[in-house]
Structure prediction request, 229 residues.
Amino acid sequence: MKHKLNNQIVELKDDRFLFARMLIVARSRPEINLQKRIGQHEFTSLPRALFTVSGELLPCTDKSSLTAILEELPNKTGDDMQPEDTTNKETLLPPKKVTVIDEMAVVQAMGKPSWIKTCAQWADHFTAILGKCSDYDKFHLVFDRYDLRTSLKKSTREIRQGGKPVITYHVANNTPVEKVSVKQFLSSATTKDKLTVYLAKKVLHHFQAKSTVFIVTARQDVLSNDIDV
Prediction:
């Protein structure tokens, strides 16, 4: 069987015979752990986890399943994470409660209520949701980066758009968003990039005088309302 791959002919038949000979040799060597040896290497011209035989990228369609898998993992009490040397317990700092938030996931989940007319009101709604999380001492607010020219997420986004043109919006306090859906507003990577910087500055300004520490990442910058980062 022959298959054309990047202007080259791949001889799958020869590969099959090669693997058969390798298996016979391995069976005659009981000291060889097949699971350990073969499981660590991919005998293909392209990694099967990422590409098809023809070289096409395999898109990840069930990324959300990872959340359920992580939630099913056993919870650690934190006892095994304490420092080994506990002779001077009085010198240990009190435990802090820290949360890490995917900010673009919050933007997608909170939607855009009908009373929101401008980007400024949308930002107020965004910071109000964060303000309800008052049980933590420190917040790490993480935005995806959309200023990269090439990335896997950008390629996936282009595939989903199917070549359809997208509209780029200017992100400012007075930008009207009343008649624009969230999906339409966030269809452009350029708009998303501007929105991450806009919301990061709004969050820091809103929580500037708060005791809770906020650390926000936008593009390649890291900002905070309390500490040097």
Observations:
- The mean pLDDT is 79.
- The longest strand covers residues 213-218.
- The chain has eight helices and six strands.
- Residues 65-71+94-224 form one domain.
